[in-house]
Amino acid sequence: MNKRTKLLIGYDGSESADAAVEEIQRAGLPRDTEAIVFAVADVWFYPPPADPTLPAPSSPLDHQILRGAEEMRVRATQSLIDADDVARRAAARLRTLFPSWEIDVETTINWPSWGII
User: Fold this and answer.
1) Among 5, 33, 93, 111, which is 20 to 30 Å from 25 by CA?
2) What is the phi/psi pair of residue 80, to 5°?
3) What φ, ψ does residue 104 adopt, rounded to 5°?
4) Which long-range CB contacts under 8 A does 27-32 form with residues at least 24 apart?
């Protein structure tokens, strides 16, 4: 029985990560490989959606907290979009280098070390 090789490629879009993608050619991996290019949007805090059961904000501080939470949500969402774009560029390069491989992209919001684990 011939098992398919599976490969997880943690990728951050840096020059070093690009060099590592190019060096995969030297690894001698089989033609029947399934790869996932995985990128992590490094965001410290992603607030949950607003709870509709809570009372509406009534003080300037309440409004400031909500504005801050919304700004964090927007930044986290943009970071996730950026991470996805970076991973897709690497996947496109890998598809050129290894046309027989099945290559997918995954992204998450987390600290990079925890996100990969």
Assistant:
1) 111
2) -65, -40
3) -120, 165
4) 29/5, 29/98, 30/5, 31/98, 31/100, 31/101, 32/2, 32/4, 32/5, 32/100
List the Cα angle 68/70/75 in 5-degree steps. 95
pLDDT, tens only, 43-87: 765 455 566 665 565 656 555 556 667 777 888 889 999 999 999
Q: What is the pTM of this model?
A: 0.75
Interatomic CA distance for residues 111 and 117, integer angstroms = 10
β-partners of residue 87 are none
What length does the chain have? 117
As a whole-number percent, the residues of the chain with pLDDT over 90 amount to 58
